[in-house]
C-alpha cells in the first residue's frame, strides 16, 4: 500500500462507520465547510487509505467542490500574472522566454507590466506551456468579435 493509494477490496462496514462518524451533507454554511475540510485533512494525513476511506474522501471532496462552485468567485488575473504563475509552476527562468518574446528586454518589460502581450506572444506561451491560449484572456475579452481593449486582454481566469 502506498501513501494516497487504496487497498484492494471495498469494506462496506468500514464505509458505513465513516459515514456514521461524520455524516456527509450538502454544505450550506462556512461552518459546515470547515468541518468537512477537517475530515478531509484527517483522511489525507493518513499514511495509507483503504478503499472505503478513498470513497468517503471522494464524497467529502465532491461536497466541498460543489459548495465552492456555488459560493466562491475566482477573480480574473492579468495575463502577465498567469505567465509568472506558469513560469514558477514549471520552474522556468525568465531567460527561457526570450525565444518567445524576441529579446530579454521585451520579456522583462512584459513581466513588469510595462508592455502588453501580443498575439504572437500568447501563441508562443500557449505552445511552450502546453495550455490553451484562452488562459491569457478573460471570458469577456474572448467573446468580443473585434479588437478588445488592452484591459480586457489582460484579465485571465485562474487555472484549475
Describe what this molecule looks like in 3D.
This protein is mostly helical and 160 residues long. It has two domains: 12-71; 77-156, lambda repressor-like DNA-binding domains (434 Repressor (Amino-terminal Domain)). The protein contains nine helices and two strands; from the N terminus they run H-H-H-E-H-H-H-H-H-H-E. It has helices spanning 12-21, 30-45, 51-71, 79-90, 98-101, 104-111, 119-129, 139-143, 150-154, and strands at 77-78, 155-156. A two-stranded antiparallel ribbon has the order 1-2. Helix 1 crosses helix 3 (51-71) and helix 2 packs antiparallel against helix 3 (51-71). The longest helix is centred in the middle third of the chain and has 21 residues, at 51-71. It is elongated, with a radius of gyration of 22 Å. The two termini are 29 Å apart. Residues 139-160 have low confidence and may be disordered.
How are the strands ordered across the major sheet?
1-2
CATH superfamily of the largest domain, by name, is lambda repressor-like DNA-binding domains
What are the segments in which pLDDT stays under 50 over at least 5 consecutive residues? 139-160
Helical amount among residues, as a percent range?
Answer: 55-70%
Compute the CA-based radius of gyration.
22 Å
The largest pleated sheet is described as: 2 strands, antiparallel
Average pLDDT, to the nearest integer? 83
What's the quaternary structure here? Answer: single chain
Strand content: under 5%
State the helix count.
Answer: 9
Could you tell me how far the N terminus lies from the C terminus, measured between alpha carbons in angstroms?
29 Å
Tally of discrete structural domains: 2
| Pattern of helices and strands | HHHEHHHHHHE
CATH topology of the largest domain: 434 Repressor (Amino-terminal Domain)
Class by SSE composition:
mainly alpha
According to DSSP, the number of beta strands is 2
Give the name of the CATH architecture of the largest domain: Orthogonal Bundle
Gross geometry:
elongated
Top CATH class of the largest domain: Mainly Alpha
Amino acid at each position: 500500500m502506498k501513501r494516497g493509494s487504496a487497498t484492494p477490496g471495498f469494506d462496506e462496514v468500514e464505509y458505513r462507520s465513516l459515514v456514521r462518524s461524520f455524516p456527509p451533507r450538502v454544505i450550506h454554511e462556512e461552518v459546515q465547510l470547515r468541518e468537512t475540510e477537517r475530515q478531509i485533512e484527517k483522511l489525507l494525513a493518513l499514511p495509507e487509505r483503504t478503499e472505503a476511506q478513498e470513497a468517503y474522501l471522494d464524497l467529502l471532496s465532491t461536497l466541498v467542490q460543489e459548495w465552492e462552485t456555488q459560493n466562491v468567485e475566482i477573480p480574473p488575473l492579468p495575463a502577465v500574472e498567469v505567465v509568472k504563475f506558469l513560469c514558477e509552476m514549471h520552474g522556468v527562468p525568465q531567460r527561457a522566454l526570450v525565444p518567445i518574446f524576441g529579446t530579454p528586454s521585451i520579456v522583462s518589460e512584459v513581466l513588469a507590466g510595462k508592455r502588453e502581450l501580443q498575439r504572437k506572444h500568447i501563441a508562443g506561451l500557449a505552445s511552450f506551456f502546453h495550455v490553451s491560449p484562452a488562459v491569457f484572456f478573460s471570458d469577456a475579452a474572448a467573446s468580443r468579435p473585434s479588437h478588445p481593449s488592452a484591459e480586457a486582454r489582460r484579465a485571465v481566469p485562474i487555472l484549475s
